Amino acid sequence: MSNNLIIRNIIRFVVLMVLQVVIFNQVSLWGYVLPMLYVLFVLMLPTGMNKIALLLIAFATGLTEDLFCNLLGFHACACTVVALCRILFADKILTRNETTEIEAPSVRTVTPQYYMGYLALMMAIFYVVFFALEVFDFHDFWYSIWQVLAASVASSLATTIIAVLYQIIFIKQRKQ
Fold it and tell me: Which domain holds residue 155?
């Protein structure tokens, strides 16, 4: 990774974390929609990145959010699972198994329909893990499942829309 790319990723991390802490941590719509835009940082890291480094960065990103939310590792766990799924699925979804490396996967640098599928899938995985850790209870098993699924669908949809708007506003058009 070049120094320029590292600096851009550090700036992206700071901007997304500040937006998350200052704005999105204060938003809770109907108790089900919790936008977590900071996950976009993990999803926008270069596709050819070292797998161990990706997992460690994802864990550190989630842990940073946990510190601001006073949670016990829910964000860290969910971000790490997303990074693992990204390692398994990103090349298949974003590049259709081509050997090209994408510096910052976004709606502007990847074919939009592929990127939307990737973003929606990764956000759904993040929210299922996060809400399963947060609300799951064996006492009311089916109600817990319903809460996890409802909150995951609503939050994934909201966060995907916010993430795409963020990228349209702040990410430059790819060079053709």
Answer: 3-170
In a domain, 105, yes or no: yes
- d(Cα 99, Cα 65) in Å, to the nearest integer? 33
Residue type, 155: S
Sign of the alpha-carbon torsion through 58, 59, 64, 66: positive
Tell me: the pLDDT tens digits for 11-28? 999 999 999 999 998 887
Both structure tokens of 76:
């860290």
Using the CB atoms, write b or e for 61-74: b if 16+ within 10 Å.
bbbbbbeeeebeeb
E strands within the chain?
A: none
Query: Residue 77 to residues 61, 118, 139: CA-CA distances in angstroms?
Result: 10, 19, 23
- Which tokens in the block code for residue 24? 């999105």
- Give the pTM: 0.89
